[in-house]
Sequence to fold (279 residues):
Amino acid sequence: MKKPLSSYHPLLYKLRVVQKRLSRTIIWKLSKRNYADKKQENKLPYRLIKHTSKLIRKLGDSDARLQHNKIINLKKAAPYLNHIIIEPNQYFSFWKLVGRPTAERGFVEGMELSIGKARAGIGGGLCQISNLIHWMALHSPLQVIERANHSFDPFPDDGRILPFGSGAALFYNYIDLILFNPTQNTYQLTIYVAEHQLEGEILCNVASDIKYHVYQKNHRFIKLSDQVVRQNEIWQDVSQKGQGGKPATFLNSQKLYANSVRVMYPIADELITNNSHHG
Fold:
């Protein structure tokens, strides 16, 4: 695969980042999109989904300091997102709400994944919030308009709850998580950093009888040339809840994502699938 020009020299990479950030800023200024920016302290009455994720996880032999710094960054960012209301035909943008994570604003060095490496960066670790929001959005009528996945798998699984490749990468401001509300209902997001976990909810002004199931298919490790690649598919099933003791009614199933990324840690040979196998 051809390498981007920006990967050949750090200066070229920095110039590319400046260009992309400027481009995004211009797009924001010219956009006719109605972005969500209002909050309501009182929670909407009906919960669609609640999800939590552990704040500290073992990530290979990475610097534990960056994990603890991540919590500082999460606590800085969460109030910008907590209680946000997403009205009909509105868009939700992570970066438009949180803004640029800088040292001047109190953000610290956490872990960020970039150019095939896990490294320290101001504001690192905020992906934990975008991962949580994205997962909850997949269990709601909110549409994922923009979302990026990491191009590599940096660490072996340790206590993984969500399927591999179901997260949402962030990098200010052009790698964003953007949702859209296509319904006539109003939704509300809550984000809270508790002592040991990150907690989130999506709430609605009306009750819903729709049920979502998000899962993976065809997970495998394969060898391409001298590189091990991890692949899977993320699927979503939608059903209507049964009434009066009746079973749920299946409505539809769709493949959301097909992931194929480089693995950056050793994989035992017995876990690698023969490349000719496509099951």
